[in-house]
Write a structure and sequence with these properties.
This protein is about 25% helix and about 35% strand. By secondary structure, the protein is of the alpha+beta class.
């Protein structure tokens, strides 16, 4: 019988997969579930990930595990690149599955006012990329 993986362990695996996928640089991960949103700024250098001083990994794991155990949610990873440009990737989370979003899917989300459904102008210097597959357990 295969042992069951707890939501906190899956959340931790997801976060480490995101940190690894991001590569070197300054990043902001935004996790949204229903009306709740959490933003996690971090910086990767080599094999190290640095979180802002007021952010604890345990808090991020707890919040992410609650979303993994409940409703469908999403994660957007924004990387600040050259002066004035950013790259974004996104994933739809549903239980233990992290479905990568295509550049087009993410562009539609970013370009639509979620309250009215009206189109929004594209942010200058923002580039949408197809998200990579995340190896989750």
């Amino acid at each position: 019988m295969k042992p069951q993986i707890l939501p906190t362990q899956r959340a931790e695996n997801l976060l480490y997969a995101l940190f690894d996928a991001a590569g070197d640089g300054c990043h902001v991960m935004t996790v949204s579930a229903g009306v709740s949103t959490a933003m996690v700024p971090f910086h990767n250098r080599g094999n190290s990930t640095y979180l802002s001083q007021d952010i604890e990994l345990a808090d991020i794991v707890l919040a992410t595990s609650l979303t993994l155990a409940g409703e469908v949610c999403g994660i957007v990873l924004r990387t600040n690149e050259e002066e004035g440009t950013s790259r974004v990737w996104g994933w739809r989370l549903d239980g233990a599955i992290a479905d990568p979003l295509t550049a087009g899917e993410l562009r539609r989300v970013y370009s639509t006012d979620w309250l009215t459904g009206a189109p929004l102008p594209q942010e200058p210097g923002l580039h949408y990329d197809d998200a990579p597959h995340l190896p989750l357990i």
